[in-house]
Amino acid sequence: MRAIGIVGSPRRNGNTEYLMNVALSILEREGIDSELIPLAGKEIKPCDGCLRCKKEIRCVIEGDDFEVIYRKMRETDGIILGSPVYFSSATPQLISLLDRAAYVSRQTREFFSGKIGGPIVVARRAGHNFTFAQLLLWFFINDMIIVGSSYWNVALAGSGGLRDIEKDTEAIETVRHFAYSMARLMKKVYS
Ligand SMILES: Cc1cc2nc3c(=O)[nH]c(=O)nc-3n(C[C@H](O)[C@H](O)[C@H](O)COP(=O)(O)O)c2cc1C
Fold first, then answer.
1. Which of 89, 93, 125, 133 pairs as cysteine with 39 (C-beta 3.0–4.6 A)?
2. How much distance in Å is there from the Cα of 10 to the middle of ligand 1?
3. pTM above 0.85?
4. CB within 6 Å of ligand 1 — which residues?
């Protein structure tokens, strides 16, 4: 059993990555191989709507980091998507990845069917629920199984510093609960 945590922040070691690591370390402890995939420092070009994936069943945009990450998304059993809120939205880096990954996978009719996961969202002050919903919609249309928790996986990161998140103990507890539920579900479905 494998899970990946994709972090859409362009900053390494930031708040979203911190919270993602909380989730991934619980999955690891529960016996699920977990990998952090930060998009920081990677280039993911946006979908250009060429629609060549309809014929070629792959994304033809080349010269960036899409293909490696897309392969990992296809091969894993669990996917957690983490994003900081950028003007009430997920980051453009993450959306570029999700647009292309979803459109290519739709051509195969395999989608990401049956994979288990959910979103984690961090903001300084507001816009969490828009971004959380935006990511939930992506999970849903890709025929995935979404895990709940004791609250939404949303966190406040105060002034925007790299580790402000540590003060939001309720969010950390919510994400821990989410990760335990995800592990429990993955073990039921996959073993
Ligand atoms: C371009 C940009 C837009 C942002 N928009 C919002 C916003 O709409 N609401 C909010 O509360 N914080 C906003 N923030 C703050 C980030 O969401 C916040 O600093 C977050 O902790 C960054 O996560 P990271 O440490 O994982 O990069 C924005 C930050 C940037 C750089």
1. 93
2. 11
3. yes
4. 9, 11, 14-17, 84-88, 122-127, 157, 160, 162
Cα(15) to ligand 1 centroid in Å equals 10
Which domains are present in the chain?
2-190 (3.40.50.360)
Give per-residue pLDDT as tens, 49-89: 999 999 999 999 999 999 999 999 999 999 999 999 999 99
Interval between CA 123 and ligand 1 midpoint (Å)? 5
The DSSP-derived string for 134-186 is HHHHHHHHTTPEEP--SS-SEEE-TTS-TTGGGG-HHHHHHHHHHHHHHHHHH
Angstrom distance (rounded) from CA 184 to CA 188: 6
